[in-house]
Here is the input.
Amino acid sequence: MTNSRDVWVFGDYRNYFQNRVTLQLLARGRELAQAQEGELCAVVIGHDLQQWVDEYVAHGADRVLALDHPSLTAYQGETYTSLLVDLARERKPAVILVGATSFGRELAARAAKRLGTGLTADCVDLRLDDQGRLVQTAPGFGGNLLAEIVIPRHWPQMATVRPGTFQELPHDYERQAPVEWLPLPAGLKPERVRLVKSERLAPREQALETAGVVVCGGRGMGSKKKFRNLVELARLLGGQVAATRPVVYARWCEEGALVGQAGRQIKPQVLFSFGVSGAIQHTAGIGGAPFIVAVNKNPGAVMMQMADVGLVADANQACLALIRELKKRLRS
Amino acid sequence: MHIVVCLKQVPMVSELPWDPRTGRLMRGQAEGMMNPACKHALEAALRLKEEHGGSLTALCMGPPEAEEVLREALALGADEAVLLCDPRLAGADTLATSHTLARAIQAVAPDFDLALLGCTTTDSETGQVGPQLAEELDLPAAFNVEHLELTGRALTVRRVYDGFLETLEMDLPALLTITTQEFAPRETPLGGLERAFAQASVRVMDAEAIGASLDRVGDKGSAGRMLRVYSPTAQKKCVLLTGAVKKSVQELFERYGDRLGGLIGQDLASEEEGHDQ
Ligand SMILES: Cc1cc2nc3c(=O)[nH]c(=O)nc-3n(C[C@H](O)[C@H](O)[C@H](O)COP(=O)(O)OP(=O)(O)OC[C@H]3O[C@@H](n4cnc5c(N)ncnc54)[C@H](O)[C@@H]3O)c2cc1C
Here is the structure.
């Protein structure tokens, strides 16, 4: 059997309300499937799946493959990999997309290995080229660069994508699509790793993710003491403080303030960025803020080019001047 | 008990020059260090060895300079160090890397009980090598482990996975990847480092020595192909304000005070003269 043109999205429904990455992948997967006249198929494994199946159809899946069994209630790396890989071998999708959750990363890596194919982590863009190959754009190793990667000779083409990278389609509960309820295959090997206990942790502080104003400091702030000035500025603006990785590494602020690929994804209305160069791993987390003010002594910094207004100045001096000016204006 | 720990050397800075033709990092231009999560994995291995006895093999794939991280591991208490160094192993994606590491482990430590890795590396952060190595070695495995206990041959581990605190159990032999949450690495003893550098105890092996098939390692064994590398182009037209800071800040409010104020819900456009004095 030759490979289909279908695009598969793994239905990762745990933590549905915190992370809607499956729906976001369905939206992009739909464009990819349509472009090559294939089907967009959601593959969901677990138990009590009806609600997720409905959700995936409403968000654009042309077909849902559902493996529903009480023994699949908890996510299990080995078993889920076997099930996904067997299905893929049987139906030969062209592309498999998986959300970059902890479990999704494990599952995608295992499945890619068993299928002997390539897997690109943390894609920020996915498109098809004129030869129908999936062009995966992912941050290059360190630095302000993006790399376009293809998987030309291996099958299927696999990618993980972080939550928040693509936008989900509006739901349509009138939509209909075939749903295949598949039986658990016989002879499945028992999971060698036993889940003894699983407790849901309190959802982490969301203040940064939902803040309308974010004041972000980078290495250019100069010191821990100066970095503190940003806290005062954020307070005046009614916003939250964020940071880049060198700042977090230097312990100028707590780790939870890290924004970017390895940290949080923010979507502020206004972003103030002080002494930040604008590396892709950082800017991947700032989600197209409609208004950006950047301060950098280097007018050529990427962060300055991304901004609406760039102040060519010392980061800390500018922060202090802003505080002074704001105090004046807020009083009046 | 025989523990194998896989260590990667990463550049100390994250901004590295690229070779625009090959799209590869010019690693030669940066000082290397042991990847932080790998260092925590090594610490976990050392503590297990102290508690349960046995031996510890450190394994690293990399250029000749990567020998440094193995010397560090020896200074800290590893019994044996193996550097997989072969130009044909270079340019590997995670598919090829996991194959290489699997072959190496089978060649140098066929009797191993536990393989430990860092959960991610700071230079690419895919987190894929651990799961793929577990697949190739066909071992029970857990990733992003923060805490572990060994009782006999039974391993109990704890990790945070997608907002759940999970406790998992498995039997040895097994594979774990370790985060930087716990297992704070100990200081490298100075004398130990000197001794480790003086003794030529790092074994260097190439692709043949570990029995890897050449079409499954390095660039050749990798599935991904880089089409191009580029700088994301600026999306906006930036208005640059130069000159004295105070003036620039005033200009910012004069020109954008309305917009800013609207976005943050404050009136910023007007300034009452004289209040500042
Ligand atoms: C796998 C991986 C994941 C990563 N994940 C993240 C992540 O999630 N988040 C993140 O932030 N980074 C991440 N990074 C690191 C990222 O690549 C950059 O190294 C980092 O974002 C740079 O931080 P910075 O802009 O503060 O520092 P720098 O790049 O050092 O930039 C400092 C800037 O400040 C300016 N400057 C210096 N002095 C002054 C001054 N006195 N006044 C004004 N301006 C000044 C400089 O011109 C420069 O533009 C990751 C890297 C890798 C490899």
